[in-house]
Amino acid sequence: MAEEVIDLGKMTRDFKKEAMKIIPGGGNLDLCLNCGTCAAGCPATGLADLDPRKFLRMILLGLDEEATKSPWVWMCTGCQRCIYACPMQIDIPRLVYNARATWPREERPKGILGSCDMALKNASGSAMGASPDDFIFVVEDVLEEVKDTQPGWDELQAPIDKKGAHFFINQNSREPVTEPDELIPLWKLLHVAGIDWTYGSKGWAGENYCMFLADDKSWEHVTRTSIMQCAELGCKVYLNTE
Amino acid sequence: MRKGFGDPVADDLRFVVKSLVGEENFVEMWPNKSNNYCCGGGGGFLQSGFTEERRAYGQIKLDQILATKADYCIAACHNCHAQIHDLSELSGKHFPVVHLWTLICLSLGILGPNEREYLGDDLKEVNMPEQKE
Ligand code: SF4
Ligand code: SF4
Fold first, then answer.
1. Nearest-CA distance A189 → chain B (Å)
2. Residue B102: inside a domain, yes or no?
């Protein structure tokens, strides 16, 4: 950080002003006691030479660039432990989210960016880019195999786009794409419990890296696609397995 | 457990896990519930490219798990599973990290032979359902 004295009068504190507009109740930002409880219990403390207390203090001082452009904003997981521990309930992860959003989209971490872009490629919303047809193929294939090889599961179902099913259930892409056998235990449990459920051909993927990317528009698009499929099928409950 | 849902959900999950493994086989880690630490798999960290930092973040979780001396770690979330599995392998301890669905099906006796990837050798053959010839 700079060696010279910080002239507080020159600071615009734009980031703080914007954040306080968005956060419900203004986020209590001005109530920080500087006690350090948040930093003491944050696993990201010390990474990239920052911690939640320092991050907040920098923003309160108006060191917007230094705070928001630190790679640390990608190392806070948003776990909310700091809010829980903070005597003033200050929502630091929300500030971190806003800081992520100030990065030009193409400069945000490639892995997260790529996963979000994959999800925008087709109607699946999958961070691994699997299309609705890929998903349907894998589910049907795995289901057939269970019926062929395991006795007692002739009635096992893995419905896709079943109209009027009670539960609309989404699915992390990791199973259908990299370890399809891991899909089976959930289907079995739902079957044994007599649950009326369905996947959607659209919006079946449970993960949403656009949210981690702090790309609100894309986040909404991915979520909306999934919710709309649930609504179109007339399902009663949207069950997010993520 | 996601702190957003609070301790009642953590209690529900304890009911499930204790029903599966038996009260006496469930080891609580410390601190726990809302006071617990995040493993470091969330928020996009796994895809962020900051691998070294992600593992440094996860060190607290690894220490917490090892301190329980439990044979298995259950991760009910995908990101947690991937992160804790990575921590387990990297630490050289190789403790199994299992999904909740695996344990539920195992205890119901309906976990098929190909659905046992994450079980340790001690449970690989346990409660195996009948196979078709
Ligand atoms: S715990 Fe809350 S009050 Fe204390 S330093 Fe952190 S943000 Fe400020
Ligand atoms: S939400 Fe972020 S800053 Fe707060 S404790 Fe978790 S990792 Fe640390």
1. 7
2. yes
List of chain A residues whose C-beta atoms are within 8 Å of the C-beta of residue B19: none
> How many C-beta neighbours within 10 Å does residue A150 have?
21
Per the structure, the complete domain to which residue B28 belongs is given by 7-115
- Tell me: the pLDDT tens digits for B9-21? 999 999 999 999 9
Question: Structurally, how many domains does chain B consist of?
Answer: 1
Q: pLDDT band for position B2 (50/70/90)?
A: low
Phi, psi of A123 (to 5 degrees): -75, -5
Q: The complex's ipTM?
A: 0.94
Task: Give per-residue pLDDT as tens, A77-136.
Answer: 999 999 999 999 999 999 999 999 999 999 999 999 999 999 999 999 999 999 999 999
- Interchain CB distance below 8 Å, A185 and B3: no
Q: Print the SS3 string covering chain A.
A: CCCCCCCHHHCCCHHHHHHHHHCHHHHHHHHCCCCCHHHHCCCCCCHHHCCHHHHHHHHHHCCHHHHHCCHHHHCCCCCCHHHHHCCCCCCHHHHHHHHHHCCCHHHCCHHHHHHHHHHHHCCCCCCCCCCHHHHHHHHHHHHHHHHHHCCCCCCCCCCECCCCCCEEECECCHHHHHCHHHHHHHHHHHHHCCCCEEECCCCCECCCHHHHCCCHHHHHHHHHHHHHHHHHHCCCEEECCC
> Per-residue pLDDT for A2 more than 60?
no
Q: How far is the CA of A83 from the centre of ligand 1 (A)?
A: 8
Residue B67 lies in a domain: yes
